[in-house]
């Protein structure tokens, strides 16, 4: 039975802790107790770390010490990886049990059993439109034993023993919390679907995250793909239109349409006040559901000491820092999938030809239980390349005809190494170690890495698991459809009927069919490296990166407004020099709207002619300060106008001066106020706000907010279309008062540097707070900090942890 022992309450919280003398006494006792507990933590039980058969892991002998500081941030100390996983699983469950339990239902294919087949999942673990589609895919993964096979693969191609121990411990810790505690979150209190999990479940969740950009993006296409029953006059026989498909593929992978993104910048010592590196990480992730971050510090004395943020259900710190290195990730432009166009055997749509010889597809029949209904059974069809898909979303159909089908290749379906990459980062002592970790593990599925270290180095790498699509291969093997999609989007469509069109392998790749480290775009030790979800090309505007294959991203193409604004800002910071962590904090909340800087003056000048009967609207646009601070007046009006303008006027017609690769940061510019749709966008935006009872010059924060436990909390920041660093993609509800919730945007922020001491200088902020449970004191505390543009001073070193006025120490045991 689990018996947590609370060793100390929050200081200042009860009568006997109010005096300075008692405070110091308790600090001393706590330090002594921690030393004893850490020294005597029992070893891990000798259980099978692979969790074969999916049985629940034993928590016998597992324990950890969890020290909570301000805002409910846990600092977890354990003897080894299994015990560290135990403490991490316990602490995550305490904050996020309902979200975690929901995710475990997803990866076990049980959503329809509990919630019905037609409801939509939260989208955190796949793109499935309905529960039944999600279940059919994940139950298929489970039935095929895909994750079990990956767990059996020896490292480095498979996960390390340390990672398996972490997963075993995490599951045991999660289960132990469930046994001991009553769930109070109304999202799942009393629900029969909140159940113990296995280490295999934890690995399945990791698999889902790994394939988010590949199979996870195509779940509906995989589960709905059906062979044509027989040739018939009504059966489609033609190929998809190349031009329309190419545009759909471009839109599918475009940053402006993504629900995840990020900014990150690392400055070298040449730009800083003390010659040491600096890093600002600003991921843009969903504010609800299973793709939230969660903060912690993980410590195995003498082995590991890292602080940062983990995606829920992850056993490691994904984005973080230690005493020597800090790193962040940005969602990359690399396309982690490709298609193979199959030539089907005459008379048999479930056989395809390779070098003229037929190969049978493999049928995987999957059955999903359904609430209040009969089970649903469907067959999925698999090939040597991967599953047959009927499309990549509704806008990109790939019809299965009597002559042609399409199979999807996702190399991350053979990749459970991402958490080993994070473990390597956690133990790194320099950016060189970060690079060595990327070379050794090759585990990141869909992100870039930006890092800085205490010696003053900066580092960028687009080291990710990508299908080995060289431009030469695409030129030689693309089908007519692929000749349109590959240049436009990086999605290759290769001729699956030719064995000489196989992807091949690089000699330094740990996984066949992927690129090796020598092919990756890398930039070291420039004054700054920056990425805002465009390709690697303008990582540093003075040192453009070129020479990589198209599948990684484009070269010499127009950048997003967020990239342009970000490069302008960080290049100016680097030129100014003498930078400190405080400069990073100011950049995070500068809230400059690049679209406003580029367009507002021209819009204001053209407004009287466009709206001759509305001088107030023109006055508001002219008076706007070009920022999206909570107090900014006119920001909301410009935002609504700009969305309508950008959505109705073709991109090529929005600017008078077009893009130039010779001046990529400053072009295009000069808004085209003569474009059809300009005046209408202004009129419609003004009418929209007035109809909602919102003054055109209302402060942004009065109508861009979230509500937590009845409290309205204003939110600053702006949208992708405005190009704001502090990105906020809110939910528009005119009847509710404007932007009434944040769908995705700024999430876990970290500003990190070093001053020559033993402790990093770090400020962090989790915009949506640590817990999803409205009954938790940490449901909205950091959200209020975010609203006030205030930060958490990270407590990394022991002396700082023990000095926390909120210190609460818990020992958890199995």
Automatic annotation (TrEMBL):
Protein family membership: Belongs to the peptidase S45 family.
Record bears the keyword Signal: yes
Organism: Streptomyces narbonensis
Name of this protein: Penicillin acylase family protein
Source organism phylogeny: Bacteria, Bacillati, Actinomycetota, Actinomycetes, Kitasatosporales
Keyword Hydrolase attributed: yes
Stretches the record annotates as Disordered: 225-245
SUPFAM superfamilies in UniProt: N-terminal nucleophile aminohydrolases (Ntn hydrolases)
Gene3D superfamilies recorded: 1.10.1400.10, 2.30.120.10, Glutamine Phosphoribosylpyrophosphate, subunit 1, domain 1, Penicillin Amidohydrolase, domain 1
Top-rank taxon: Bacteria
Low complexity composition bias: residue spans: 235-245
Keywords: Hydrolase, Signal, Zymogen
């Amino acid at each position: 039975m689990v018996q947590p022992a609370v060793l100390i309450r929050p200081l200042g919280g009860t009568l006997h802790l109010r005096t300075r003398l008692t405070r110091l006494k308790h600090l001393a006792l706590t330090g002594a107790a921690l030393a004893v507990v850490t020294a005597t933590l029992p070893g891990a039980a000798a259980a099978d770390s692979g969790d074969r058969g999916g049985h629940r892991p034993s928590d016998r002998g597992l324990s950890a010490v969890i020290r909570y500081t301000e805002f409910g941030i846990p600092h977890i100390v354990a003897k080894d990886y299994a015990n560290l996983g135990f403490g991490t699983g316990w602490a995550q469950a305490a904050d996020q049990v309902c979200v975690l339990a929901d995710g475990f239902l997803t990866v076990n294919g049980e959503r329809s059993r509990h919630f019905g087949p037609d409801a939509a999942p939260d989208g955190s673990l796949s793109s499935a439109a309905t529960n039944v589609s999600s279940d059919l895919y994940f139950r298929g993964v489970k039935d095929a034993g895909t994750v079990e096979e990956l767990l059996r693969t020896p490292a480095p191609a498979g996960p390390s023993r340390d990672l398996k121990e972490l997963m075993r411990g995490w599951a045991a810790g999660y289960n132990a919390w469930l046994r001991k505690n009553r769930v109070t979150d109304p999202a799942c209190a009393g629900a029969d679907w909140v159940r113990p999990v296995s280490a295999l479940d934890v690995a399945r969740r990791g698999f889902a995250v790994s394939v988010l950009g590949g199979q996870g993006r195509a779940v509906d296409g995989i589960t709905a793909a059906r062979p044509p029953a027989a040739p018939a006059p009504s059966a489609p026989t033609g190929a998809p239109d190349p031009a329309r498909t190419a545009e759909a593929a471009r839109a599918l992978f475009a940053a402006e349409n993504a629900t995840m993104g990020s900014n990150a910048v690392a400055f070298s010592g040449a730009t800083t006040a003390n010659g040491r590196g600096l890093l600002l990480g600003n991921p843009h992730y969903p504010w609800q559901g299973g793709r939230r971050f969660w903060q912690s510090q993980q410590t195995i004395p003498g082995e590991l000491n890292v602080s940062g943020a983990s995606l829920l259900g992850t056993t490691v710190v994904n984005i973080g820092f230690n005493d020597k290195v800090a790193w962040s990730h940005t969602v990359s432009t690399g396309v982690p999938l490709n298609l193979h166009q199959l030539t089907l055997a005459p008379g048999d749509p479930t056989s395809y030809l390779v070098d003229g010889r037929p190969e049978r597809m493999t049928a995987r029949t999957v059955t999903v239980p359904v609430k209040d209904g009969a089970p649903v059974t469907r067959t999925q069809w698999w090939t040597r390349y991967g599953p047959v898909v009927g499309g990549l979303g509704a806008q990109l159909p790939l019809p299965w005809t009597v002559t042609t089908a399409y199979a999807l290749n996702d190399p991350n379906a053979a990749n459970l190494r991402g958490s080993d990459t994070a473990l390597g980062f956690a133990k790194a002592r320099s950016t060189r170690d970060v690079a060595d970790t990327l070379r050794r593990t090759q585990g990141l599925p869909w992100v870039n890495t930006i890092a800085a270290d205490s010696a003053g180095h900066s580092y960028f790498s687009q080291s990710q698991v990508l299908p080995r699509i060289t431009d030469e291969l695409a030129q030689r093997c693309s089908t007519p459809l692929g000749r349109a999609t590959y240049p436009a989007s990086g999605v290759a469509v290769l001729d699956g009927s030719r064995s000489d069109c196989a992807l091949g392998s690089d000699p330094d790749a740990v996984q066949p069919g992927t690129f090796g480290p020598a092919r990756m775009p890398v930039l070291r030790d420039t004054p700054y490296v920056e990425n805002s979800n465009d390709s690697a090309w303008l990582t540093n505007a003075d040192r453009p990166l070129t020479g990589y294959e198209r599948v990684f991203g484009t070269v010499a193409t127009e950048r997003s407004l967020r990239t342009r604004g970000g490069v302008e800002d960080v290049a100016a910071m680097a030129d100014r020099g003498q930078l400190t962590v405080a400069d990073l904090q100011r950049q995070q909340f500068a809230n400059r709207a690049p679209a406003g800087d580029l367009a507002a003056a021209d819009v204001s000048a053209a407004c009287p002619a466009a709206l001759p009967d509305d001088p107030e609207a023109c006055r508001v646009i002219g008076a706007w300060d070009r920022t999206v601070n909570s107090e900014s007046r006119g920001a909301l009006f410009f935002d609504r106008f700009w969305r309508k303008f950008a959505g109705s006027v073709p991109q090529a017609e929005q600017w008078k001066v077009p893009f130039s690769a010779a001046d990529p940061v400053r072009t295009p510019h000069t808004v085209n106020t003569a474009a059809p749709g300009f005046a209408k966008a202004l009129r419609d935006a003004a009418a929209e706000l007035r109809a909602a009872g919102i003054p055109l010059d209302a402060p942004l924060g009065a109508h861009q907010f979230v509500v937590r436990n009845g409290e309205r909390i204003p939110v600053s920041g702006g949208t992708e279309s405005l190009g704001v660093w502090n990105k906020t993609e809110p939910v528009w509800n005119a009847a509710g008062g404007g932007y009434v919730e944040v769908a995705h945007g700024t999430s876990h922020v970290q500003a990190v540097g070093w001053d020559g001491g033993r402790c990093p200088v770090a400020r962090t902020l989790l915009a949506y707070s640590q817990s999803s449970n409205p009954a938790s004191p940490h449901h909205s505390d950091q959200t209020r900090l975010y609203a006030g543009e205030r930060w958490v001073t990270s407590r990394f070193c022991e002396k700082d942890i023990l000095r926390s006025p909120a210190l609460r120490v818990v020992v958890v045991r199995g």
